[in-house]
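User: Design a sequence. Structure:
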């Protein structure tokens, strides 16, 4: 437990006990034993501030506030304070050192002329400052430590905020865990990794009167340092919530006629669903951050089940061998995560442009399978891998992928589409490069090209013949568009080229490739902006892309272009067929309004099934989800026994691959519960489908009026520019946002509890959950210094403490960590 109010120790006291006015506020009673706060633990040479340590009245034992462990003195016969044992415990168990429990503040006039009264172990202020200044870079304050607490009144809270503000503004030392403090802000508040150089961070540093050099690597390192605390917190919360699941129904209560039985079952279902909806559902996902880092995060849906909360666990650079980070998950979470219903451990296969069926991918999948992580194939990775052949052919490489030493930090496209081992010479890019070289090396061609360009209104300086660089694939669209603008001139010069000439198929290929890369890059950006983004929309995204490729094939005029497009199409069709085999996708797609409204998408995804067959399968999968949480037991004794041994049972990961029960194992009582749940789910899904079919079109029209677009027949037009949208832009800017809003509004209406449990499960996998889990990190732009400092002062994460090394975790802190502006 934590003190109700802050202690105000103005100096280090020499007695074991502080004054009664102080101790009365901080006495902790545990099992009838009173623990008093000790302001220090003393050995022969060192004064150690103990933060929130308690000790008994003989001072032979100390109780660690961080974990509750009791630390004794050297022996129970020698009356020596347990200072060294306690310091060793802090270092070994919590990775804390004595200086982690200090903060620095300017010396007060009183401390310069007097020293605290005390016993023979007293140390003067002057000597103490001299001994410690080299370690702490400033004067050690004997004042308040930064304790996590919840103010009981608004007035007290405002005073506390002002006190925090004053301490920070007066702070000038170098050992306040500055990088950890900034990590806390950057990861859990309103700034992104790449904001280190912008005016926002400069304003912050100038306000705090220090200017440390903080890099993205510092942030990465500090997330690793936070892992121990965060993993402990996550484990405790999962155990707390998981211990109550599944919820068992005692079949002995099913006595009487069928109406009585049904009423009891209805009561059980309703009360149980409320309990499930109040229980966080956890999942493991990934997020590409700052175009450079792969952040493996633990996410969960709380009672507002359409809002996702995210905690970073592991950070690693993308396009490196990612087979190692499963060790972190295995060591810290797997034992707990695999035991509880409501948990979905999913991760993308790998974020690097490799063949999805390659040996590396299989090795990755095998390693994850061994630790119980379900592999959801990375749609992002499939799209990246299918685009790479357009740039050239793969070069034989060693087993370990090599990185280009000259590769610059670029966009997400540059980081994901790694062309290091791709030979572009035989692609259209190589052909254009050779053309540019020939023009530049032959004065006759160079002069003719410039003369031809003079006939245009374009500035010649804008059209330099820059070659395509493999380490900048993001420039491919601009590169192709520039060549397209030269088309007329190149055609007129075709007969003058000695090395290269361009035929009709070449020009068509360049136009088509520009369209393919434009849509592909849009999807890569969409899918990399959130962790497992748009999971409930994945099938519709892939189907839209497939339809767009088929459209390009229909209008293609040369066999060469058609062949390339069919190769691309085969990759996407294979992806769509893979999705159709995944029951998670079946369930999640059925709650996607735009997918359901355009039922032709289901016909393409499941060509051999009627809509009724699809709905029957959806109900079966939904039953599998509900069956993870609600079960029947034969007696009160058996139920208690099951709950008692819950942690020792091997529950399967929550993936709705199985049915609610195996038919041969269903008893009469089980069958009744099964029937009631199935009937309720059929009614709920039926009401949802009816709502979509009757209201979605009008809802879409009203939302479209509020957007920047309008519809002219089957085409969508940008009101400002008058330009029509391509299929993928239409998908990203219009259909997905409106579809998500429709579903969110429906969930906020009075929906049935069983349906809400199923939806909450699906949204746990869909880590975007209608608001990008980390999008607020990009959106926050403080208007001025006051706005920024107000945000900093009002941070309530990590128990309101800025020094994350000194956190005392409580069971409810998982909510407070993620309870901050931006997640709405």
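Assistant: Done.
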């Amino acid at each position: 437990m934590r003190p109700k109010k802050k202690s105000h120790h103005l100096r280090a006291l020499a007695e074991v006990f502080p004054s009664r006015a102080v101790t009365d506020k901080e006495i902790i009673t545990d099992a009838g034993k009173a623990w008093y706060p000790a302001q220090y633990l003393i050995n022969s040479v060192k004064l150690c501030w103990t933060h929130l340590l308690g000790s008994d009245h003989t001072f032979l034992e100390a109780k660690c506030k961080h974990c509750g462990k009791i630390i004794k003195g050297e022996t129970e016969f020698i009356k020596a304070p347990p200072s060294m044992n306690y310091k060793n415990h802090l270092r070994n168990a919590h990775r804390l050192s004595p200086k982690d429990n200090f903060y620095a503040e300017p010396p007060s006039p009183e401390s310069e002329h007097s020293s605290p009264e005390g016993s023979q172990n007293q140390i003067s202020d002057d000597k103490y400052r001299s001994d410690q200044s080299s370690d702490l870079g400033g004067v050690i304050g004997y004042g308040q430590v930064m304790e996590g607490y919840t103010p009981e009144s608004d007035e007290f809270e405002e005073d506390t905020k002002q006190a925090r503000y004053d301490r920070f503004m007066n702070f000038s030392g170098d050992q306040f865990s500055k990088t950890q403090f900034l990590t806390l802000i950057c990861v859990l508040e309103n700034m992104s990794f790449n904001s280190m150089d912008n005016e926002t961070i400069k304003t912050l540093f100038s306000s705090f009167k220090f200017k440390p050099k903080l890099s993205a690597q510092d942030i990465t390192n500090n997330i690793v340092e936070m892992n121990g605390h965060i993993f402990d917190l996550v484990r405790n919360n999962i155990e707390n919530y998981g211990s109550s699941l599944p919820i068992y129904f005692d079949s002995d209560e099913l006595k009487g006629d069928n109406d009585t039985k049904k009423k009891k079952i209805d009561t059980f279902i309703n009360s149980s669903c409320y309990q499930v909806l109040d229980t966080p559902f956890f999942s493991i996902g990934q997020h590409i951050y700052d175009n450079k880092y792969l952040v493996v995060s633990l996410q969960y849906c709380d009672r507002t089940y359409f809002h996702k909360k995210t905690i970073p666990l592991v950070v690693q650079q993308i396009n490196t061998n990612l087979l190692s980070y499963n060790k972190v998950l295995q060591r810290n979470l797997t034992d707990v995560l695999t035991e509880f219903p409501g948990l979905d451990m999913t991760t993308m296969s790998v974020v690097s442009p490799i063949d999805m069926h390659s040996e590396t991918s299989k090795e990755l999948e095998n390693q994850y399978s061994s630790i119980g992580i379900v592999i959801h194939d990375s749609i992002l990775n499939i799209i990246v891998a299918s685009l790479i052949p357009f740039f050239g052919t793969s070069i034989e490489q060693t087993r370990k992928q090599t990185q280009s030493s000259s590769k610059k930090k670029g966009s997400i496209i540059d980081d994901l589409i790694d062309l290091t081992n791709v030979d572009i010479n035989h692609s259209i890019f190589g052909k254009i490069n050779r053309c540019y070289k020939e023009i530049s090396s032959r004065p006759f061609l160079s002069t003719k090209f410039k003369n031809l360009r003079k006939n245009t209104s374009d500035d010649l300086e804008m059209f330099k013949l820059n070659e395509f660089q493999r380490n900048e694939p993001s420039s491919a669209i601009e590169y192709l568009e520039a060549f397209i603008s030269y088309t007329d001139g190149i055609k007129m010069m075709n007969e003058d080229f000695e090395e290269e000439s361009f035929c009709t198929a070449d020009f068509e290929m360049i136009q088509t490739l520009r369209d393919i890369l434009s849509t592909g890059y849009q999807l890569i950006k969409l899918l990399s902006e959130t962790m497992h983004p748009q999971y409930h929309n994945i099938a519709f995204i892939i189907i839209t892309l497939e339809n767009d490729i088929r459209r390009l094939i229909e209008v293609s005029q040369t066999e060469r272009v058609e062949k390339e497009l069919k190769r691309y199409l085969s990759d996407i069709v294979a992806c769509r067929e893979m999705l159709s085999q995944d029951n998670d996708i079946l369930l999640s797609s059925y709650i996607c309004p735009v997918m359901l409204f355009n039922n032709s998408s289901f016909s393409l995804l499941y060509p051999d099934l009627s809509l009724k067959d699809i709905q029957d399968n959806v109900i079966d999968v939904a039953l599998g989800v509900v069956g993870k949480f609600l079960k029947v037991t034969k007696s009160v004794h058996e139920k208690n026994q099951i709950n008692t041994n819950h942690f020792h049972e091997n529950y399967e990961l929550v993936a709705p691959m199985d049915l609610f029960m195996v038919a041969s194992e269903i008893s009469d009582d089980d069958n009744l519960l099964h029937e009631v749940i199935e009937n309720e789910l059929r009614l709920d899904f039926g009401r949802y489908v009816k709502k979509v079919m009757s209201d979605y079109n009008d809802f879409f029209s009203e939302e479209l009026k509020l957007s920047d677009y309008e519809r002219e027949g089957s085409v969508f037009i940008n009101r400002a520019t008058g330009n029509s949208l391509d299929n993928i832009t239409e998908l990203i800017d219009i259909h997905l946002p409106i579809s998500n809003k429709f579903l969110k509004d429906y969930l906020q209406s009075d929906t049935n509890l069983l349906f809400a449990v199923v939806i909450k499960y699906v949204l746990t996998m869909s880590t975007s959950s209608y608001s990008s889990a980390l999008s607020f990190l990009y959106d926050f732009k403080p208007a001025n210094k006051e706005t920024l400092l107000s945000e900093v002062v009002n941070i309530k994460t990590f128990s309101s403490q800025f020094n994350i090394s000194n956190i005392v975790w409580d069971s409810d802190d998982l909510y407070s960590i993620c309870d901050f502006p931006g997640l709405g």
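Residues 377-531 form one domain. The chain has a mean pLDDT of 63.
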